[in-house]
Specification:
Blueprint lengths: L5 H4 L2 H4 L7 E2 L2 E2 L4 H17 L5 E3 L14 H33 L7 E7 L9 E3 L5 E3 L10 E6 L16 H14 L5 E6 L16 H10 L2 E7 L10 H13 L5 H13 L3 H21 L19 H16 L4 H4 L1 H25 L9 H17 L3 E3 L2 E2 H10 L1
Parallel strand pairs: 3-4, 4-7, 7-8, 8-9
Antiparallel strand pairs: 1-2, 5-6, 10-11
Helix pairs in contact: 3-4, 7-8, 8-9, 9-10, 10-12, 12-13
């Protein structure tokens, strides 16, 4: 299993009734002796049940704020070793036990183990202390990751993806480089799980394109062996999602590829006759992000759960973007009769971006329109038709688009 796994090994449905003390909030008690016995036993059975598995993921559950706040022993360990040290000590014990069992049983299988180093729970903070000379000293030898353990860096929230992790002008992004420097003092084995969209607002444009390549180059420089980049959950529509997927895929093969050439190749081949206008729309939105970054005292950042403020996206910018996308669609007019299948494909590709722009307008600028007018009702009707046509069903991780439409209709 690639993500949160603690409760896969000791499921609440099976154990909580008899062992309520094993669980606290979303997490499990990592110092409970009985829990560890069951955890080890169940892991061994999973290994036997999955003869082709090569990676064993032992990772905390989501919403990790409660980690280490269960029994006093856990609290003491967190205080002494930090959240990551507390976690590593547990995972190391599991690995040592599993490797001994494999050897004792003559089971000839080689595993890599992994654990999250999660920003949202602060397990991404390494179990080290920075010294006066800038070097790092591990809090305790038991906090050094096992030689087969890969630390999966997971920069979620709070973190900035519009600036590179090596960009010292952005403290929010650059703190990731600081954490990694600490980890490098005790391990050279890394996996990565990172993110490329706003889970609160899929349809709003986010300029991750200045940092994307630099971050991937950085991952390569520290020896990352495995990367999982999470995009939307539950939605096939997001602002320039196709472009993002294409560039990411290409850079994963060659982190030094020419980013501008990749973008040009994408626009020309994906949007064909409408490419120039869609590219102008993209450049308009990206340039606006650059301007906001320069004008705002604290910069303009891409957060994984960032809110959308109307003053971030002036109506004039959004209407310019809308007009450019409409011009792109006009370029396909000749295909309606000549090649209706191709027309439908290209039309929907551009329409997906129009849906994103129009959602941003409707979300932030209802006061710009006479919401009592038939024209406003017609605009919502058309948005609903277009959203259904391109498969736009949710505008955030837990936000149903049909509910949102019903809400704005009632105003």
């Amino acid at each position: 299993n690639a993500h949160h796994t603690f409760k896969k090994f000791v499921p609440e449905s099976k154990y909580k009734a008899e062992h309520p003390n094993w669980y606290y909030g979303t997490q499990i008690c990592l110092t409970d002796a009985e829990l560890k016995v069951e955890f080890k036993k169940n892991l061994k059975q999973m290994i036997l049940d999955k003869p082709y598995a090569k990676i064993i993921n032992i990772s905390e559950e989501d919403f990790g704020a409660s980690l280490g706040q269960c029994c006093q022993t856990c609290k003491d360990e967190v205080k002494k070793y930090g959240r990551s040290g507390y976690l590593i000590r547990f995972v190391n014990e599991i690995i040592v036990d599993t490797e001994k069992w494999l050897d004792d049983e003559g089971i000839d299988r080689e595993f890599q183990y992994t654990m999250f180093a999660y920003t949202s729970s602060m397990t991404i903070v390494p179990p080290v202390d920075e010294q006066a000379d800038g070097t790092y000293k591990v809090k305790d030898e038991s906090c050094i990751p096992h030689e087969k353990l890969y630390v999966r860096l997971t920069p979620l929230d709070p973190v900035c993806y519009s600036h590179a992790f090596t960009d010292k002008s952005c403290p929010t992004a650059n703190k990731i480089e600081g954490y990694v420097n600490g980890w490098l003092a005790i391990t050279d084995k890394f996996f990565v799980w990172d993110y490329d969209c706003n889970y609160a607002n899929y349809y709003v444009f986010h300029n991750i394109y200045d940092a994307l390549q630099t971050n991937l180059q950085y991952y390569k420089s520290i020896g990352v062996k495995n990367i999982f980049r999470e995009s939307t959950t539950g939605s096939t529509v997001r602002s320039f999602g196709a472009l993002n997927g294409y560039i990411t895929s290409k850079l994963m093969w060659d982190v030094d590829a020419d980013m501008n050439a990749l973008m040009e190749d994408f626009f020309v081949n994906y949007y064909k006759d409408g490419a120039e206008y869609v590219k102008q729309c993209f450049n308009l939105l990206r340039s606006h992000c650059h301007a906001m970054d320069m004008q705002n005292k604290n910069g303009f950042h891409f957060q994984c759960y960032g809110g959308v403020q109307a003053n971030d996206w002036p109506i004039g910018v959004l209407e310019q973007a809308e007009a450019l996308l409409e011009k792109a669609i006009d370029c396909y007019g000749g295909l309606k009769t000549k090649n209706p299948e191709l027309y439908d494909t290209l039309y929907k590709r551009v329409l997906s971006e129009l849906v994103c722009i129009r959602w941003t307008i409707l979300q932030n600028y209802e006061s710009y329109y006479n919401i009592q007018s038939k024209a406003y009702d017609d605009m919502i009707d058309q948005f609903e038709i277009d959203a259904a046509l391109v498969g736009a069903t949710c505008y955030g991780e837990s936000d149903d688009l049909s509910d949102w439409i019903a809400t704005i209709r009632q105003k």
